[in-house]
């Protein structure tokens, strides 16, 4: 069985859990007004999250990526005196209880500025802080280790092997709360499926296979030849993969607005013996997911096992 999910926002609603403020806006405010603003933004994000989760359950969507900015400026020094975890403990409990009740898998993808294999100590420090923030949100919600944090290897720094080795070395520096959730995805320019699979096997963490990225960067390997090894990295957890379609032949690396149903069904039909969660990465978000389902229904194909 394959479960489909989407990232961050529901396309037809302005009320999504990604509301934010800026450092510049906050610095114009007195301390009390600053805290009030931060609380308003986070409360709105909790309200919107609960609405979005209810919509997902109604639509039988049980995989969802939480926006990284869910807690406004959580790792910035401008919020250093704000104990958001304590103030919103009830909201974290409520959201977590709902997620667990309906078996929703919530994941995250820390920002592109979080680079674990960096050779810059200050970037490493901010990366660890960002990863720790994401892990803390899931811990506060009481979510299990299927709520993973997806990251890329990072930069090449003119030496791929050294860059991979530095990732492994600096992974050892992470708090246990992050280590147990961090997973690594192959990218479309630097680190291939083979690079990431070898790395994940060496440090004992799961690999997220991104199918589109593999199509952009490979040495002719067939994904399915490596599928048993990729799935094995997940142990007892449910494997998670990413799927998207290219925008066009001349801009192949860019994601299309929706998913090519023929390509998806060709790929998914070879995974019928497995239970896998697949995040659809496309601009049309939930609408693309629901459109893909309709196309699969027309073809008599339903990997999610939802339709009779």
Overview of the structural elements:
The protein has helices at 23-27, 31-58, 84-87, 89-101, 121-140, 160-171, 176-179, 193-203, 211-216, 223-232, 261-268, 285-298, and strands at residues 2-7, 63-65, 105-107, 149-152, 182-185, 207-210, 240-243, 246-248, 251-255, 276-280. It contains 12 helices and 10 strands. The strands form 2 sheets. It has an 8-stranded parallel beta sheet. A two-stranded antiparallel sheet has the order 8-9. The radius of gyration is 20 Å and the shape is globular. α6 (160-171) packs parallel to α8 (193-203). The relative contact order is 0.13. The protein has a single domain (2-298), classed as Divalent-metal-dependent TIM barrel enzymes (TIM Barrel), CATH 3.20.20. The two termini are 14 Å apart. By secondary structure, it is α/β, with parallel strands linked by helices.
Briefly, what is this?
This protein is of the alpha/beta class and 308 residues long.
- Terminal CA distance: 14 Å
Quote the CATH topology.
TIM Barrel
Counting structural domains, the number is: 1
H and E order? EHHEHHEHEHHEHEHHEEEHEH
CATH class, please?
A: Alpha Beta
Which structural category do the helix and sheet elements fall into? alpha/beta
Radius of gyration: 20 Å
CATH architecture: Alpha-Beta Barrel
* Average predicted confidence as pLDDT: 94
**Percent range of helical residues:** 40-55%
- CATH superfamily assignment? Divalent-metal-dependent TIM barrel enzymes
β-strand number: 10
């Amino acid at each position: 069985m394959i479960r489909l999910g989407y990232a961050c926002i529901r396309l037809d609603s302005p009320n999504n859990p990604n509301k934010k403020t800026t450092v510049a806006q906050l610095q114009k405010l007195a301390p009390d007004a600053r805290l009030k603003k931060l609380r308003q933004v986070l409360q709105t994000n909790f309200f919107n999250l609960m609405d979005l989760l209810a919509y997902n359950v109604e639509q039988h969507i049980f995989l969802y990526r939480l926006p990284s900015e869910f807690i406004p400026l959580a790792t910035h020094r401008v919020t250093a005196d704000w104990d958001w975890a304590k103030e919103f403990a009830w909201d974290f409990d409520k959201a977590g209880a709902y997620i667990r009740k309906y078996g929703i898998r919530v994941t995250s993808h820390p920002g592109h500025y979080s680079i674990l294999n960096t050779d810059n100590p200050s970037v490493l420090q901010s990366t660890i802080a960002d990863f720790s923030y994401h892990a803390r949100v899931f811990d506060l919600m009481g979510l299990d280790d299927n709520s993973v944090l997806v990251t890329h290897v990072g930069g090449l720094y003119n030496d791929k092997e050294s860059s991979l080795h530095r990732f492994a070395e600096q992974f050892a520096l992470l708090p246990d709360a992050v280590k147990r959730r961090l997973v690594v995805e192959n990218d479309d320019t630097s680190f291939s499926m083979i690079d990431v699979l070898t790395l994940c096997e060496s440090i004992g963490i799961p690999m997220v296979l991104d199918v589109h990225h593999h199509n952009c960067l490979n040495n002719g390997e067939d994904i399915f030849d490596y599928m048993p090894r990729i799935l094995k990295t997940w142990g007892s957890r449910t494997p998670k993969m990413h799927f998207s379609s290219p925008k066009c032949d001349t801009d192949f690396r860019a994601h299309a607005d929706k998913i090519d149903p023929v390509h998806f069904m060709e790929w998914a039909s070879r995974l019928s013996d497995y239970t896998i969660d697949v995040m659809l990465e496309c601009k049309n978000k939930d609408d693309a997911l629901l459109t893909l389902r309709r196309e699969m229904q027309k073809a008599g194909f339903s990997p999610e096992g939802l339709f009779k």
